[in-house]
Amino acid sequence: MDFPGRDASQRVIALDDVSLDIRKGEFVCLLGPSGCGKSTLLNIIGGMLEQTSGTVTVNGTPVSSPRPNEIAYVFQESTLFPWFTVLENFRLALKFRGTEDAGWRDRAMQSLTAVGMEQFASHYPKQLSVGMKQRINLARGICVGSEVMLLDEPFAALDEQTRMVLGEDLSILLARRGKTIVFVTHSLAEAVFLADRIVVMTARPGKVKASIEVPEAHPRSPDFMLTDAFQDIRKELYGLLRDEIRQTVAAMRQARDAQA
Amino acid sequence: MSPNMSSNAIRLVRLLLILGVILLWELYARMVATSSFSAAPSQVLAQLWPKVLGEPNVRFAIGITLIELVVAFVMSVVFGMLIGVLVGLSDIGRRSFYPIVLLLYGIPQAILLPLFVLVFGLGPASKIAFGFTHGVFPVIVNTIAGMRNVNPLLMRGAASMGATKFEQLRYVMFPHMVTAVFTGLRLAMTMTLLGVLLAELFVSQGGIGYFTLLYAETFNPAALIALVLTLALLAIILNELVRMIEARFSRWKE
Ligand SMILES: Nc1ncnc2c1ncn2[C@@H]1O[C@H](COP(=O)(O)OP(=O)(O)O)[C@@H](O)[C@H]1O
Ligand SMILES: [Mg+2]
User: Fold this and answer.
1) In which domain, by residue range, is A160 found?
2) Mean predicted lDDT score pLDDT of chain B
3) Cα(A135) to centroid(ligand 2), Å
4) In this complex, which of B154, B156, B164 lies closest to A48 when CB atoms are compared?
């Protein structure tokens, strides 16, 4: 992925030679230093951004524009529309997608119940905490029933504890549904806890540096975090990432010095 | 102290303040001022009904002014929002057209009033036109401003859910604009009223302008004040109407 910028000095090669096969029903975490192109990759997979070279296929068909029937998106910040109630937000998502039918209300309530938010159906987003909103964003992504879910640091704005609880809930929720997930995160523990496979990316231009399997069945209990297997994978990830983060920081210093 | 009590106390103080001013005015008018240039509230009230408002010609004039005002306001809103959305939608439109709008908005229009009368005549048309040119600019400017700072994440979220361009406008852009547009509408109401009344007073062949002149020249301040107060009351009611509609659209802000 090559962002041309206004002139040559602003040109950014965000992704370079990334090749990734994701199995149906697999939970993949993307891990990498900030600015390495994780969001860009997710946007390309989701058809929100057109790549300058290469191809993306989902279920055998190339992606070039949003495909809400197959792909649901959850962003770092809530994308609930503040001027509609929670339930109206669900209805709108289904309407945009063209699948608003007689049963929409039941399906919406089911997904809200699944994340424990059913009593807030007629609240406005302003009345909810950040964590509650993100729960509802997850529920909305699940409700629309697409096979693929792309999550871009969905828990980054939450505090550590809310984050852990939501992570566990997500693991339980998704284990039943067999969805294919690509999940971007900064948190090593989150990646190990949630993923079937963790893809570690290099500093920009982002490439795939390593791909690490987490052989543990879903849903996972919090006890998994206390096991040696968990700690070993976490340590390995840390080792892989450390160099890349150093490199990112060095590149930033260089850019700053070049400007001065 | 409960919030209820304090808000009651505020209301009481406000009422006392208003009553105090009216009382002072009454005393001043009766004891100090000359009767041909000012009138006490009690005298104004006596003139208001049945004299001023009982007069069919005055009622007719007020009715005409009201109709002019409503027509000018509706035209300002419809054209203002249409132009605002069309201009605000495209970057080129905004950059080429917006400065022209701001330039025109800045002209004190009173100097153009004789021109309006020349073009549109002495009847309601010139008053509606003058009200419209006062009202339409605040609507355009606030509509464009309202479109500018929509949260891009919400637009992307809608796009990711498969919203068409029209749906993005209808369900994201328009609700986002409501606050700014209503600021424009409230301003437009005030400005339209200003435009219509200015034109009415300037052309004193008939209508409100005729009667204000008549009352002033025949040294009947009580009737003049009664007429002015009636117009002020109408303005307040219309503004409150816009505010009530706005409140209905703003429930989500809670
Ligand atoms: N639209 C764009 N135009 C130019 N550069 C961009 C654009 N989007 C992202 N970038 C650049 O591409 C790189 C990768 O960005 P991003 O994918 O957001 O990183 P990450 O999500 O891994 O933190 C960054 O250096 C960013 O500045
Ligand atoms: Mg990112």
Assistant:
1) 2-47+153-259
2) 88
3) 20
4) B156
pLDDT in tens, A61-111: 888 888 888 889 999 999 999 999 999 999 999 999 887 778 889 989 988
- B89: domain CATH number is 1.10.3720.10
Whether residue B185 contacts residue B77, with contact meaning beta carbons closer than 8 Å, is answered with: yes
**Single residue among A145, A171, A194 that ends a domain in this structure:** A145
User: Which residues 6+ apart lie within 8 Å of B12 measured at CB?
Assistant: none
Q: Is the pLDDT of residue A225 over 80?
A: yes
- Based on the fold, state whether residues A157 and A230 are members of the same structural domain: yes
Spatial distance between the Cα atoms of B95 and B97, rounded to a whole number of angstroms: 6
Would the pLDDT of A49 be above 60? yes
The residue to mutate among A1, A6, A40, A249, having the most atoms of ligand 1 within 8 angstroms of its beta carbon, is A40
- Looking at the structure, do residues A134 and A229 belong to the same domain, yes or no? no
Q: What is the pTM of this model?
A: 0.79
Residues B92 and B161 both lie in one domain: yes
> Locate tokens 């600015």: which residue?
A35
pLDDT in tens, A130-148: 999 999 999 998 888 788 9
Q: So what's the ipTM on this one?
A: 0.83
Give the residue from A97, A129, A145 where a domain finishes: A145
What residues pack around ion ligand 2 (CB closer than 5 A)? A 39
> What is the pLDDT confidence band of residue B4, given thresholds at 50, 70 and 90?
low
| Residue B133 and residue B27 share a domain | no
Cα dihedral A224/A227/A230/A231 (nearest 10): 140
Number of structural domains (chain A) is: 2
Residues A160 and A230 in one domain: yes
Q: What's the total number of domains in chain B?
A: 2
Is residue A176 situated within a structural domain?
A: yes
Phi, psi of A226 (to 5 degrees): -90, -5
Mean pLDDT of A12-33: 85
| Amino acid in the structure at residue B134 | H
Instruction: Report d(CA A121, CA B178) in Å as an integer.
Output: 24
Residue A191 included in any domain: yes
Taking CB atoms and a 6 Å cutoff, what residues make up the pocket around ligand 1? A 3, 5, 12, 14, 32, 34-40, 204
Is the domain of B27 the same as that of B45? no
For residue A34, the CA-to-ligand 2 centroid distance in Å is 7
Please report whether residue A65 resides in a domain: no
The set of residues, in sequence order, having a beta carbon less than 8 Å from that of A102 and lying 6+ positions away, is none
